[in-house]
């Protein structure tokens, strides 16, 4: 089914909006007066259900009843299921319905109705129950609203081949407008509320409202179902189990109320299925016929505190004897960073993941698809990177780059907030993929660079392959001025044995088509995000084939 455009859908409503616009009609009796302020969205599709979402703000600050409908056709003449819901101040007037009683492997139209009129019509689908129907997932990460326009979202919304969108984290950012003084390229017209850093539930809800007002994000949510996981900026920078780098208890209060406020806003504003009795649980699974088992992971709130940066740990060794520097770096890696009890997922989630992998393999599924917010693959800082600094780089920036390059020459990864900073936990996960999975694929994000990794430890090949998504709009420090210069990507690949492909130049997204024989990843990149109509500048394709002994390494075309 080819989904209609937003304009076509709105035009299609004109013939029947009167049944809900007039207060005297039976259809509108008992419904609330107000406005659907942020479109519609859907997510977490199963074989017989899907979450549908909207926001209905009443004219007066009281709960507002609405009706919802799911239909086979755009005119809603063949309604499948329908019901009532209530918008309340407690959820910032967000409404989320688990629409059950649907048929497997079907596409549907849905909408919400009020006394004031209908919402826009959304489009969604359910998962197939059996068979190996291909699945195409578009992966997104890291969307800094003031940094630019959401070209990745806009492009994906026009594609008929995408079945499901996966946002792997940093859907929002917590900073205030003080960020602009450190990032002068941010666009003045791309604004958010509040202007200060967000700390309370009201703050986080207002920030989501700013993001969800964006027309390109709104349209993608309207036409595609999503799955979501969070990373740190849905809370605050470098969040972990007991705190965060960007949380100051003296001025911002205790950590747990902020964590809980952020989690509640995430659940209220996104089309995700809550787990009964577990208000912060996001790890769960979805199945796509006999083809794929999607496993969403929480790689943020159960983790230990990340290690200090290499530049912090080694600054006192940087200007002395190189052999002494190397000994200290290796000691830190083995004894502190590599401590065997350090965790990202927590022991309970690790055990749960192993069970999910095994159950999927035993059921004969071709793929186990991990969706999480960090990066499993390791990459080293190339020695050439010292020459990538701008002429006005400070002495501290030069020293930092030199430290990281020397760490890279030891074969050690430099980005310790990632799984690289938890090597024992990473090895446990990859060992579980080998022991319990069949063909394991991982979606990641966080670094604002596009990566493709062959993760080691499998049977005569990778334990898994990974696509870590580039940023929708967030920046990275390796992006050069000249887009035709591929030397930085080549240097990363040469220095990093697990790395098959990377792109440091572009913003964008990666879609992956899974079938019984292979995963085909297509990267879509944009040179600029300063306008809404920037054309696609780069497309790359990689293929990883399935086998009976595990996924094969990426083939870059």
Explain this structure.
The protein has 557 residues and is α+β, with helices and mostly antiparallel strands. It has a domain at 1-126: Immunoglobulin-like, CATH 2.60.40. 24% of the residues lie in helices and 25% in strands. The protein contains 13 helices and 24 strands. The chain has helices at 6-12, 18-21, 151-157, 201-212, 215-223, 249-252, 255-269, 310-314, 322-337, 347-362, 395-409, 423-436, 487-495, and strands at residues 34-43, 49-58, 64-71, 79-87, 94-100, 107-114, 117-118, 122-125, 135-140, 164-167, 225-228, 239-240, 243-244, 284-288, 292-296, 367-371, 440-444, 450-455, 464-468, 499-503, 507-514, 518-526, 538-545, 555-556. Strands 5-2-1-11-10-9-21-22-23-24 form a ten-stranded mixed β-sheet. A seven-stranded mixed β-sheet has the order 14-15-16-17-19-18-20. Strand 12 (239-240) and strand 13 form a beta hairpin. Helix 4 (201-212) runs parallel beside helix 7 and helix 10 (347-362) runs parallel beside helix 12. The longest helix has 16 residues, at 322-337. The chain starts with 5 loop residues before the first helix and ends with a strand. The relative contact order is 0.11.
């Amino acid at each position: 089914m080819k989904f209609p455009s937003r304009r076509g859908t709105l035009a299609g409503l004109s013939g029947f909006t009167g049944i809900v616009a007039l207060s005297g009609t039976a259809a509108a009796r008992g419904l609330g007066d107000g406005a659907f302020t942020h479109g519609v969205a859907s997510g977490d599709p199963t074989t017989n259900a899907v979450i549908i979402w909207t926001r209905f703000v009443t004219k007066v600050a009281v709960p507002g009843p609405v009706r919802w409908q799911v239909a086979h056709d755009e005119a809603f003449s063949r309604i499948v299921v329908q019901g009532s819901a209530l918008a309340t101040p407690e959820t910032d007037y967000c409404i989320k319905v688990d629409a059950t009683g649907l048929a497997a492997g079907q596409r549907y139209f849905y909408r919400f109705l009020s006394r004031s009129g209908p919402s826009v019509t959304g489009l969604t689908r359910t998962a197939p129950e059996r068979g190996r129907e291909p699945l195409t997932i578009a992966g997104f990460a890291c969307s800094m609203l003031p940094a630019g326009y959401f070209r990745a979202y806009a492009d994906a919304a026009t594609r008929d081949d995408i079945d499901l969108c996966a946002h792997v984290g940093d859907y929002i950012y917590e900073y205030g407008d003080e960020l602009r003084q450190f990032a002068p390229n941010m666009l003045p017209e791309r604004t958010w509320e509040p202007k200060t850093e967000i700390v309370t539930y009201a703050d986080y809800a207002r920030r989501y409202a700013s993001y969800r007002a964006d027309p390109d994000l709104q349209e993608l949510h309207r036409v595609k179902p999503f799955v979501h996981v969070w990373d740190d900026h849905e809370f605050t920078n470098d969040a972990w189990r007991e705190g965060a780098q960007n949380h100051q208890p003296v001025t911002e209060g205790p950590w747990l109320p902020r964590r809980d406020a952020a989690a509640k806003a995430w659940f209220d504003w996104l089309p995700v299925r809550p787990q009964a009795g577990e208000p912060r649980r996001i790890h769960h699974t979805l199945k796509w016929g006999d083809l794929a088992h999607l496993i969403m992971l929480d790689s943020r709130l159960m983790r230990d505190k990340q290690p200090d940066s290499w530049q912090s740990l080694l600054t006192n060794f940087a200007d002395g004897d190189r052999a002494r520097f190397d000994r200290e770096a290796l000691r830190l890696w083995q004894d502190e960073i590599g401590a065997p009890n350090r965790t990202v997922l927590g022991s309970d989630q690790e055990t749960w993941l192993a069970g999910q992998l095994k159950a999927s393999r035993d059921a004969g599924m071709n793929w186990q698809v991990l969706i999480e917010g960090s990066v499993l693959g390791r990459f080293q800082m190339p020695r050439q990177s010292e020459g990538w600094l701008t002429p006005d780089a400070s002495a501290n920036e030069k020293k930092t780059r030199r430290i990281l390059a020397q760490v890279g020459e030891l074969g050690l990864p430099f980005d310790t907030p990632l799984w690289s900073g938890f090597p024992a936990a990473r090895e446990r996960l990859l060992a579980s993929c080998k022991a319990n999975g069949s063909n394991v694929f991982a979606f990641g994000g966080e670094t604002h660079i596009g990566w493709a990794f062959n993760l080691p430890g499998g049977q005569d090949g990778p334990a898994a392959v990974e696509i870590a998504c580039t940023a929708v709009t967030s920046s990275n420090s390796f992006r050069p001025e000249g887009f035709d210069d591929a030397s930085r990507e080549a240097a990363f690949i040469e220095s990093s044995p697990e790395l098959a492909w990377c792109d440091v130049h572009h913003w964008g997204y990666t879609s992956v088509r899974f079938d019984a024989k292979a995963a085909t990843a297509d990267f879509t990149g944009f040179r600029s995000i300063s306008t809404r109509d920037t054309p696609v500048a780069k497309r790359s394709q990689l293929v990883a084939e399935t086998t009976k002994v595990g996924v094969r390494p990426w083939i870059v075309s």
